[in-house]
């Protein structure tokens, strides 16, 4: 099996920064795309940022210029550096990854989520 474990959430004042980490472990051959999603109370889960195995990135318009996604393929870990945080960034942040357990077997996995609260 595959597990994704997030860390780095917490409470921060508006304008502050946080860095989220997500480490994948288990039966892993390789990892394709990795990404971060978030879900605020009463809202649907939305994509925040994604990164391919080659390093191509994609961001939600609301976080462009403030958030940076990166990954360490050797550690099977993805990061989300969040700067200039706003109260509207408050949400549970989830890690997501397309993990190959063999060259032909791919599964999509989610982490358990980490809470980010940005106070005004």
What fraction strand?
A: over 45%
Q: Count of helices?
A: 0
Fraction of residues in helix: under 10%
> What string, H for helix and E for strand, traces the elements in order?
EEEEEEEEEEE
| Quaternary assembly | single chain
Q: What is the gyration radius calculated from CA atoms?
A: 14 Å
Structural class: mainly beta
| N-to-C CA distance | 40 Å
The total count of strands amounts to: 11
Largest sheet: 7 strands, mixed
Gross morphology is: elongated
Mean pLDDT: 96
Low-confidence runs of at least 5 consecutive residues: none
Structure description:
- The chain has 120 residues and is mainly beta.
- It is built from no helices and eleven strands.
- Strands 2, 4, 5, 6, 9, 10 and 11 form a seven-stranded mixed sheet that branches. The chain has a four-stranded antiparallel sheet with strand order 1-3-8-7, with no helix packed on it.
- Strand 4 (30-39) and strand 5 (46-51) form a beta hairpin.
- The chain starts with a strand and ends with a strand.
- The model has no long low-confidence stretch (mean pLDDT 96).
């Amino acid at each position: 099996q595959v597990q994704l474990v997030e860390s780095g959430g917490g409470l921060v004042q508006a304008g502050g920064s946080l860095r989220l980490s997500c480490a994948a472990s288990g039966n892993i051959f390789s990892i394709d795309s990795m990404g971060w999603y978030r879900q605020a109370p009463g809202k649907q889960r939305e994509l925040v940022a994604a990164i391919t195995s080659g390093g191509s990135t994609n961001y939600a318009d609301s976080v462009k210029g403030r958030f940076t996604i990166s990954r360490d393929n050797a550690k099977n870990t993805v990061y989300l550096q969040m700067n200039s945080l706003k109260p509207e960034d408050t949400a549970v942040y989830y890690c997501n990854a397309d993990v190959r357990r063999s060259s032909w077997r791919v599964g999509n996995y989610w982490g358990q989520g980490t809470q980010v609260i940005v106070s005004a």
